[in-house]
Structures are given as C-alpha cells and as structure tokens.
C-alpha cells in the first residue's frame, strides 16, 4: 500500500469539526437526555415512522443529530467512533453537568471530574448516553485538583 501524499497545507481549505450524527434506539429518550445534559435545543426533527431524527444545537448552530436507526447498543469493540467530547468554558460548567448527570442517575466513570492525564489541568466528566455511546464534557483548565485515573495514558482514551 502506498503512503498517502499530503497536499500543500497552505493550499488546503480551512477545516473545523461540524456536527456529529448518532444512531439511537429511542429518539424521544435520547433527545430528552441530550437536551438536559448539554442544554441544547431541537432545531428540527421528523416523526415519520421510518425517518425519525432530531437536529440539536444552540443559537441556531447544529451540534448533534440523532437518528433512530439502531437496534442495539454502542459497540466499543468495533471500528468507528471512540467517544464524543464537548468543551465548556470552565470547570464550574463541568461540575454543573456532573450534577445533572447524577440527578438523572447516569453512571459517571472515574467517580467524577478528573484531568485528561498526569499533570494536565484540562479535564472533565466521562459517561455514557442511553445507548452506551461514550461521552465527555470537559474544560480547558481547572481539573488538576484530582488525580489522573489512568497512569501514563490519556484519560479519554481508556473508558
């Protein structure tokens, strides 16, 4: 197999991440979960029997799309999405999300807010959505008051 040739980065268009699409088993349940945990609005949706979806975002900007097209649970042992991460401005916002998750009875991994790794100030809270998709809400700083749960590796890589 030939290695890919990299084009001139100066001639390449600027890229930024867009929205993420997630397959879910129960659109209503997942929509309620993401709205409550992320504080997003429903920007559009369809309730047609074979075309159920919801567009979720803030201030008119699309963040997540939910597609009711799944009959199983998120497979961590298959190629594809590892986890989704959502950045918030500060650690107080992470702690508010943690509180909401606890109110909802969601299992929080690593027992709360933790840094991204040894010596890192950035960090957050790690959990699963109703279908088992791995999620993270983090802040760029302020998580260094707890010990890193994974020695010698990124926290977000092993949950």
From TrEMBL:
Source organism of the structure: Allokutzneria multivorans
InterPro entries membership: Glyas_Bleomycin-R_OHBP_Dase, Glyas_Fos-R_dOase_dom, VOC_core
Annotated VOC domain residues: 16-140
Protein name: VOC family protein
